[in-house]
């Protein structure tokens, strides 16, 4: 590159030559001095200063350099660079933040190398920021080289035809390159086709460049084989754009400017066959088959090459293979001046109204915008006492013309087409006589009928109104217009926008002249996972509907990563969508999660689950069965990789159908793995052994063979395929069913996987200077990191990646604060989330941090999401280093002490444990899953440590499932009962002497808890009763009116007491829950005794009716009687009478949404007993008309408290408080919501 000579033009039209003026940077002095001192500074009255460079001819500019004004305090610290071929219709050299960094002092030189060279004649330097202690001061230099161009001008009716030497041209490789600039949004640039159906068309359609390509020789299949690939937008901007098409067989690279799309063509063909000719600029014969657009190209092309042939050069030299129809070889430049309205609140252009013509006026203009609302024209009209206006505005994307008067109201017209699509639209208004006629593009004209003639006042307002609120000469019912306007004509007189810019005509605010600054923010779509992008002038948004993702750019998956996550959420078996790579490129898939106990199977089914019979196959013409799974093989590969174990059952039933040739062992049948490779081992055998499971177990039907079917009789070989790298089965091939009586039948089961290798992939950092180091991922535009941590340390860095200036960091900055900080080039941004409770509590906490081009967010556990939006037109790309640090920093300061697990970034799971094996100060695993994650197991379930994770022992819980949260329910028919005999801790149960039983136990300060749920429509009904040999009892019943009553008699000589916590009926078919919590100083032993003679008549009547309905999750201290009845029917402790069925009434209640009718009751119920006899709380086992015998019932019920589940926690409900704290910890651990049982009524007694 060379320093280019130029002529300077300042914003006040003063011309200088670079060879003789003092604004040229002095190269000979090392870019540090000046020729004679000085430099350029604009006049203080110049509203829009700029420095323009004329290179005298089109050059290829590769770099620019700036310097401040010599001997002063003046310099430019940031500037915008514009370029143009003609000195009109400027285009901005685009950077992420629309500005180039300049100088910080007057003498140093700052070079800026252009990321992509500019081919132009004119450059314009527009100062944006300058010296805080001085003013604008500038010296410039431009670097580049000469540029040679072959140009052709197409007028919309012309074309170039390149004719082949032979009848047709068939190619397997093509390279086509050209540059173009277009005056219109439609037009064919290139077209060629063959008689057998091949074609290629490059066209502009709605300002976008589309490549249509078909290599299929069959016209019948052409519709399915044709490819349409679209690039670019707003390409009718009268600026040059570069196109490159490279094809080899089916592989195509399609490049527009700097952006390339790679794709493969469809169909069977590899070659492109074109007959006779290629046409450029249009299709010369209208109606030819295979065409996609009818309008020819209107604009200029240059440097047009087809497979190395310079087509324009051949046309200029009038070579016979080129036909040029009405094509000229210099590019005509339309003298158009556009203005950009920059602000949606303050931009406006005010023009004086010209002289009236024939009792009317006309306005015409062209505009383009993305905004759905904005004012185009507000014209105040001459009237009597009442103001009148003619308003042209965009409302909800459509054009509205309104004639507004106070006396006659509104009359309006609305266009049928939307105009906020970024394309140029032409609108004209004509007021003639008593009509206003509006014409939009090619739509039919619309008319407003008037009652009087329109006569404008002295001004027309375009785009908006003046800022003054007292100016009644302009009315704007909407926001100001943001967009581009050109070709304004008022009364058929063109408006000179350059005169406006120079202050000679009208007035304006927040306008840029001689350029259209519109950008397509959806062009290179930042919306992920197939979401839809929409935009306004200054921003874009993503519609995530139907994608399975959420967030500003649809980056975050709505689904869990595995069935294991759903299990930990308390879900039961069913179909779920899982997203194996989270925010990665793989789509979610639907699987069946078979959740049984602590084992979870992820089941992926295929299209051939039934048995298939095969006959008549040979090795030459074998039978091939394909399996189409409900997921792609990329998704299946990810599932297998994520899982700890995978398997697939394969069964081969045979009648004289062998698997291997008995003479030489040649496979006669086999299966194909997911990579398409042939596998000859069968179920129960590992790879490398050509056998079946019976061969390994040495129990084949014929010991001379290693498979049952090789015995050549009716047998079967069935087993499990469990080598993960080969699963799932893709095909099965059978080649030995051709003999007489030969037949085979196969069944291939679904793919089943268990375990999640990364959910509990954890490491412990025990040295502050230690960290794990990983290669950094590509996170320029989108970063998403999530992990769990637990620590006792007050601070520490979780993850960090540093660039030269840019960085990302997530850290625990204080015991209760997590911080996410980053720098994308605009200075550090810090998001802080403070927890109301300490986070260094040795419990697992979940962190998620995300940064994209729209926003950054931070979340910890279930705390509210912290979000900060990214300002528009700032740096977008994170420029980070090649190394990612987990658990510390490169400087080995502020290291993290504690555990991190399940670390995921942009859908990639990091194997922390493997890296920890070779890293000092870090160990694999993290001890104490249970101790640090209280609440993982609910309802008295016990957490048990495992090598990777934990399990819940629900033996002493009334609930089941992996987290002891699944209801255990039984349905009782009339006459059914369960009796449970408590053995421990009272060994005297075997001695039934009344004397022994009447002796107070040595146990003191006992605590008892009872909980049960019931659902019934029967009343009266017996829920619970407890009897002692001393004729004491406690009974919980539903009375005749369905109300809940608790009866207890502690002294046989006194009448029993009754407590009624609620008067309304509970026999309503809903699930109700009763909990009794009791603490007493004495314990009395008693034993169940049949007979109702000791019971009150009301209780006896309820007992005689028994119970018909459902009981669920019955708990008495550490014993779950109902669960024991289901699981231990042969036990001597459990006695079952009548017909009982396992039910799901408790689980069904979780799905309902009924609202509780109950109100909190918390009144003390004081009972006056004998002073020598303390109050006693009465509890018992359950269920139905028969009762559980118990050995110990304490003697007082001090308080009965009934309360709805949603009531506030009270100090008296310590047990409930503890349970809720466990549930909160559980949610924090797994970032999952447990379903609330809104339909259940609960009572705490």
Automatic annotation (TrEMBL):
Residue intervals of the Fibrinogen C-terminal domain: 554-606
Transmembrane segments: 1177-1202
Keywords: Disulfide bond, EGF-like domain, Membrane, Repeat, Signal, Transmembrane, Transmembrane helix
Domain EGF-like, chain residue ranges per copy: 518-555, 927-965
Protein family according to the UniProt entry: Belongs to the neurexin family.
GO cellular component: membrane
Topology in the lipid bilayer: Single-pass type I membrane protein
One protein family per Pfam: Laminin_G_2
Domain Laminin G intervals: 151-331, 338-516, 761-926, 985-1145
Disulfide topology: 899-926
Annotated F5/8 type C domain residues: 1-145
Cell compartment(s), UniProt: Membrane
Main location per the UniProt record: membrane
Protein name as catalogued: Contactin associated protein-like 5a
